[in-house]
Amino acid sequence: MLAGDLSVSRRLVVETYAQLTAEGYLVTAPRARTCVSELAAAPAATAPRATANAPLYDLRPGTPDLGGFPRGAWRRAHAAILRDAPDDVLRYPDPRGAPELRAAVAEYLRRVRAVVCDGDRVVICSGVREAISILAGVLADAIGVEDPGPHERGEILTAAGSRPHALPVDGRGLCTDGLVDASLAAVLVTPAHQFPTGVALAAERRGELTAWASHGRLVIEDDYDAEFRYDRTPLSALQGLAPEHVAYVGSVSKTLSPALRLGWLVLPAWLVEPCVEAKRLRDGGTPTLPQLALGHLISSGEYDRHLRRARRRYRARRDALLRAIRRHLPAAQVTGMSAGLHVLVTLPSDVDMRALDDGAGRRRLTIASVGQFRLAPRTDDRALVIGYATLSDADHAMRLLAEAVADATG
Predict the structure, then answer these.
(1) Does the structural domain 57-68+308-407 have CATH classification 3.40.640.10?
(2) Which CATH architecture group holds 74-303?
(3) Contact at 8 Å (CB) between 247 and 271?
(4) Residue 4 has pLDDT above 90, yes or no
């Protein structure tokens, strides 16, 4: 009936209803009408502990709201796979990953991130660190990294047998002109939401990067928090532009919990077998039961519903943080997209960053500057990277930070 009223195909209506149900907007049940759901109110953040030595507020980026983990859905997923899975799943793991999870991840990434893949191109690993380490070990050559960029990338690449090479970042993402004279086998990049600056890789640079990779090189795309864009639909994955020249890396560390140690590689055909063999020799395979639970969570639609709730919660906390910065640190400049779990806050030029770190510590604040995310750490970067996913009282935290900034100014 609806298809006729709208003059569209019945298949389009069915697919639209399925997507709205997966994201939590609609509720369906056997022999019952489809209804609009009452989206659950965002759970309150856990208040900071008032112990003598623990920080009141840890403002460093990287940790999601652990109190928002969908314990009930995860418990039901585990119960379902333990009830229904055959005994064979208790054998040693497949180093590629459980077929059920690989298929679920491939379907999810095609639908949400426009990644070009199927389950045969997916390798399950123990988080993004292992994924990057596997690739670095297989390539065993110089790899370009964003500077500043995600924490410990240089150490991870070096330990795996590669040589990290710093590439600058500006307001339009990775500076691709630095690739011309660099002899690199690959570039590791965060194009959808550069960490920590918070910018997106400009369209022309996306094209330049994939064109560079088409000459026997590789782009490693770390899509670490693309699920969290608050003002518009996020950019599609870079991998979709050049599937045979981009290795796509993702995990549930930001969306669910870093404790799960579950991530994935989506690989060009020529890299699948070398990476599977490296994974086999490394640890024999990622534990199967958590993989099956995650696959069930994705396939059942619970993962989409969890992400919808998380987006609402994180957007509210980001807005609260921005209001608090405007109130208590009016001279600071906030940059970056309305996305992710952190903001970049540049302080006035007369702030002594060493003194600020000391003053923040006295007020039981833990802070991180951009300089900590450089390949060669620096202490003169006046920008702070502030994570808000676990921030329970942004106004109080920014008032304390403003006091520390005032003490460190002059």
Answers:
(1) no
(2) 3-Layer(aba) Sandwich (3.40)
(3) yes
(4) no
